[in-house]
Fold each of these.
Amino acid sequence: MRGVILAAVCCLVGTVASAATVVVRAGEHDGFTRIVLQLPAEATWSLGHKADGYLLVTEGGDVGFDLAKAFEHIGRNRIAAIEATGTPGALMLKLACDCQAVASRTSAGLLVIDVADGSIGDAAKVQAPLDPAGAGKLSDLERFWLRRFSTEEMTPSDGSGTSESPSPAETDQSRLETAARLLEWQVSRAMGQGLVEPSEVTPDAQLHPSAPGRADGPDMPATISLGVSAGTAQDQASGTAVRETTAPACPDPADFAAGDWADGRDFRFQISEAKDRLVGEFDAVDAERVIQAGRLYLYYGMGSESRSLVRAFGIGPEDDRHVAALAEIVEGKVRAGNPILALDCDADIALWRILADPARISKDNTAAVLSSFSKLPVHLRNELGPRLGSSFLEHNDLQAARAVRDAMARTSVSGEDVTLMDFEIALSDPDGRPDPTALVARLSQQGENTARSVVLAVDAFRRRDLPVPVEVSDLAETLSYENRNLPIWGDLRIARARALASQGQFVKAFASLDEVPRQPIPFPADLFQMLADKADDDQFVEVIFDHMALAMAPEHVAQWNAIGTRLVTLGFTKEASGFLRRPAQSDEDRLLAARVEAAEGRKDAALKEIRGLMSDAVVAFRNELLAQAGGSDAGGSESVKPLPPAEDAVQSDGAAATGILGATRALIERSSADRLEIEKVIKDLSEP
């Protein structure tokens, strides 16, 4: 009896020893899910497409599969299940998406199966097996790859070893044919992944015409016409025709309908319910429940918590249904690679895209954006409304900004935000002159909108051409430090500089922007206009010579005439000439050119520059030049000035006339007064 038992145990041990258990591991990558198996060296494999996924079949060795850790690091968005079938050595991959699988075996013997999003092409339906162990059964293509790997891996890094030499029987012809088949195989994989598309095949005779006097020998391979087309950025730069790419397809609108992500119950109950059972059996993450919990956080404006939740459970951007992208928008910290920036869709999607990139606002999508904004919950309207309204105001759409304001005003908790929006709208209105007194009174309360109130108050004072109170400029300085890591930091720095300039402290105003160490902000062009119009001579000269290169930058061209006129008036003719626009774009440009010519002693050239211009400033300057030149214009056309109609010569109330006649009369009166003074001096000197 004991002998029978020992024999049975030996048989059992032998059976177990001959079986190989393969641990199935998987991981998420950018755009695909990867499955890795360490098959026995003697095993061959094949991967075929089935109705609900892919079937992996192994042969040559008793292979079993350990699936305990298969879903340890992946969700079920692409792969719904991995199951061992009734056939030994067979493994079924059930898909949860319209995906395709591509398998390959590495030089280390690992079998890698990548499941990527996209339609399944014919070239990817079946993967041929690869058996590096049985050299006698290898194709030329497989042998080519094995030779390449062995050559690269067997050569020592110091160059002392020798690589495997090709067989003497392997001619150039066979090697070229092997490379051609390799190219065909690689292109077929690329077609299956959607990286290249079929195109019209060019006949061989057109692709490779025989050169005169050349005979193609028998060692030249036949031309292989693959009939595919692909494009690169380099092709576009060189003008080569490439395959057109299209914008990403519009996702499900439900992924952006934030108003539908919660109900009227208390937040604590909803979030507790949403975070229950996020992990199921075998520690498998329920991706859908995680996404729903992330959306609930978004509904209540908690962008950071939402993004942290989906990332903590290993759900990447390709599977989180835009939760992390929306979280960035809610936080106001949108990165350059945010996928919503690439979408061009309507309804709720358009609202989020414009919040991410206000430059995308257009008349075509305004109605859809306003409709979606009105459907947001109250707290999100209050959170996102000021940013959306400001974006519309930047595009001079006061009507849309007022619609945003009205949507916020329909709630009972948005009074403060609505008040601030009223100020912004009034400031954007060309005829608006809001009284900053109410805003200044609010600043002492130090609420969450204090920073925004300071910026608006400074703009309101500037609109009324009034100096900003010192306490407001000091508060702007304090808040800019406290908010140094927030987007409003730059607005506060600019408000501080404008406030100092309004107080006549131009040197300090420009220096405050020079001190910005980390985050470059756009320099406010209106500071140069204020400098040219209001600064005293000493401050103007000090600031403009310290910032000459910045003032001459193209973005400040609107202030060139004011700066150049101030410079030439102070005697800096050479520096003023640097602000001339050639060719002149306006009457102001020609007047500045005339001032420069006159300052350099070329009065005739100056008169020529402004010939035909009739503005008050031009007429006054021309008459001044004519008086200095004795009333003669080299061109002859300016000696007699045209007078306005008689009815405009004298106003009905007897006041002095304006325009051409007013300037001429003022010049005559000054000349008469000077003449009387001279006569008086002569008379006084002649008396004993």
Amino acid sequence: MNDLVTMLKTQQLQSDYSTFSELSALAATGQLDLIIKTNIPEVFDEPLERRRTFLSHRLNPVSPVIGATGETAGNRSAQARKFRMPGYPLALISTDVFQEGEDLHTFCDSIYHYGLSGTPIGIEQKTGRVDRVNSLVQRRFINHHHQQKITDSSDFIQVTFPHIRESIERLQVRQLCHNLNDFIKSLHEFGDSSTVRKDLIDTQEALSDKSEIPPQITTPLESPYIPNKPEPGAGNRLAQLETLEQKTTSTLLHIKGLLKTFCGPSVLTQGYRLPGSDRILSVKLESAKNGGEILLIAEEPFSYYKISDHCIEQCMKIYSERTFYRIIAEEEGHHTFRLNRNAEILVGNESMTEPEEIEAFFNRFHQQAVELTYQQPSEKIHNFCQQAQTLANGLDDINGIADFDTQQQDAALQLTFRLGINITTRTQKVIIRQSANLCIFTSKAVPSNAIRAFRENRERKIIEYTWERNRHTDVVEFFLDSEGDISGRITHPEENMSLEEFIFCAYTIAVEADRLEYIVSTDDFL
């Protein structure tokens, strides 16, 4: 580290391209979040102690120039990721393999077409790899707009067609530029058929034509479509987005304040050390995968599991069924899985998330495996069922709920969801119980007879549909229950639960359990 600092101090006095110039530009423009989101968003899924190794594997090795052909197909995503990062590689030389499927826009604003596509669409497709949302050029325009500067031609994406002037290439480039201009005009002059694009070149006619390559159209063109500008007031989508932004900002400030009070100011960057132990949880706030809700997520490395070394039923009972955190797994070697403890909870503003919920959330990691005892759901939960059912039946769609009904079932409530419409309607049962101060939602997804059909792949399939699947779902924990079925579960403190949180938990587990049921078998048997 000292050597790096010394090198950066030396480079600071130089004007040449260097590590210092790249890092200082990155710091000045605040683009770190964009780089992470575009290239390595999964870094936050890794525990703190593994992130250095993760980044090393994702970003090395690098070189000033890289090449992509059909022979490098297996390495294409890695090549694109490295090119989207600041620094090396500075140039990517590619055949048509990068014409689609990968974005190359983050730090690139120049394209050289040495091989010409026959149509304007083909050229636009290739140029489109860097003409993207959040591209270098778009960020430059936004920056100039805020500074009220007038951009010049160098601020645009630079598209170049290198060719030998006294060759057939010049004829190809000239015709292509004509076709590009005609294509652009056709998008604005709706119904205009005065121009005919030429895919084939008449060599004799082209040789006798001494005209120059036409310049690119740079003047504003008339659009045939009149923009529908929303009026201020009700129905204004922009006003709705601004309201949503204010709500999200308020929620983040509230939750960060609670975390700072309970865990300390650096919890989101350095993690949270559980009191009385050396265990450190990585903590983050993240959007739900299937919606815009904000989730509080905590995670820690736990153990390893190797197929055939243990009894999967016994491990599921101890690790999952009798605990209030989730187990998520990632395969690291042949039949070997790294296990992490994980917990996720929906959070909101002051009226939705209280300090006691934050404390109860982290207390899940203190709890040992226990034999759960259930009791009748409280009157509050009964009322939530009635309110949610009224909303669903009155609005036809509340948070995706098309319809459901409620039944009393011993010491539990049963919600039967009807998901989808017409012939695609599926049903899914959600059981609501209470254990101490926790409200527990469960829903069966895969019956034991379907699990037996896995035969010799049974143990691997169980892990795939439970611990591994937990890594890709919000809040829901899938596990092998005491009846030999795969079930999903969500736990939430009953005392601080709001109607919004109740609806989120009930609907989320119904949808996720039904989705897994459909993956294993298209039959709607649970």
